[in-house]
Design brief:
Layout (H helix, E strand, L loop, with lengths): L3 H13 L7 E3 L4 E4 L8 E5 L4 E2 L1 E7 L2 E7 L5 E5 L13 E5 L8 E6 L5 E7 L2 E5 L5 E5 L3 E3 L19 H148 L1 H85 L4 H72 L1
Antiparallel strand pairs: 1-4, 1-13, 2-3, 5-6, 6-12, 7-11, 8-9, 10-11
Helix pairs in contact: 1-2, 2-3, 2-4, 3-4
Length: 477
Amino acid sequence: MRHWLPVLLLLCAAILCPGQTPNGYVTGKGVALRALPASYYERLAILPEGTPVEILSQRGEEGNQWVQVRLPVPVSGWVRGAEIDGDGVVIQESCPVHTGPGENFTAFHEARQGEVLQREGRQDGDWVCVQAPSQATAWISADFVARGAKSLPPVSLPSQEKLPAPVAVAGDSSLAELQRQAQERQSEVEARSRELQGLQEKAQKLEAERLAAQQKAEQAAQARQEALKQAEAEYQTLESERQQAQAKARLVQEDSQRWASEAKKAEEKLLKLQEEARRQEEAYLAEAQALEEERQRSDALARESLEKVRQAQQARDEALLQAAQLQESMALLEKEVQETAAKAEQLRQQRQQWEEAAQTEQKRLQDLQAQEEQTRLKNAATQEELTQLLTEREKLEAQLSLTRDASEQARLRQSQEQEQARKEAQESLEAARKELEALQQRQKELEQERAAAQEALAKESQEQEQARKEAQESLEA
């Protein structure tokens, strides 16, 4: 009977930890089995109190020590699908086994080429879920592990005084009782193993859900970072477009200033021309007055000639002499008339020159109108670009509304800057429009002054023509 007790203990140890040699056990309830020696690494399984483990090494400082153990329970891992074949055989030189489907999860085992990994049927993208090999290792806090074998509860054996008289029968009865107790213990161990396996499966499911939630959180954080990067890029694009719009507005303003300067120069030149026309008009009036005086003198001479003709009738000789004098006077008058016609021709040429100068000024005004049309087209293009900027800003606001508080703040700040840029551009356009209106008003005034100058020239020409006709009539009389 005593020789069966070690056999039964070894049998129980083999049932609890098949293929391993336990040299320790878990002392706490619900102890976490982690991928690496730190509490922030992923949890692979939850170990109940009393779970036998094979301790391989120990590391850490006082108060934070960890022991490395072989996997005491089945644990799931994730590998890349391209690193194993359909049967789970590793086809690469090395195949890291991760705690989750992604490189951001911790690798806790390195499978070698030719090693077989049992598939569990789950897959996430390029990643395949497998059962970690039994030689894989993990880590447990040293505070919840004790070395040595856990003592088994004492087995109550029947007392020799209560055995039947025949020794052989008593031995057989004790052996049968021990076998029955061993079977009960084995059934209990199997029931506990099934219960433990169920708890481990639940823990693995919870762990998988936690890993999935963690992955989703990381994906959400990555999406948020990408949204922030995209918002930053679009903000820089809008900032560049705003600066371009400001540069265009400055160019428009500079063009308007240049056109205003040219209009001012044209106005000064027109004033000079008007002053010159006034001086020439005064000169023409003086010449017309001189012609009028000459005409009066001619009339006086004509009257004197008539008087002489009357007197010549009284005396033929005196009349002939006076007639000769009258012929000479008429020749002089004809010469003066020719000189007056030459002066009128000079006046006509000067008027033609003034008309040509007025046409030149008209052409310059037309050029200014063409420049004004170009400015209007540029302003329309700038307005269209501002409309496009507003449309893109609205799209950006719609995209940024999907992000969290940080992206919302960036969108508000960007919207304010865009609104400020739009207001500045509108103010620049309004200033340019006012300057254009001032140029148009000035152009109208120049046209009115030019029309007045033409009317004055026409009136002066009519007066000269009238004076010439009167002079001719006087000569004819």
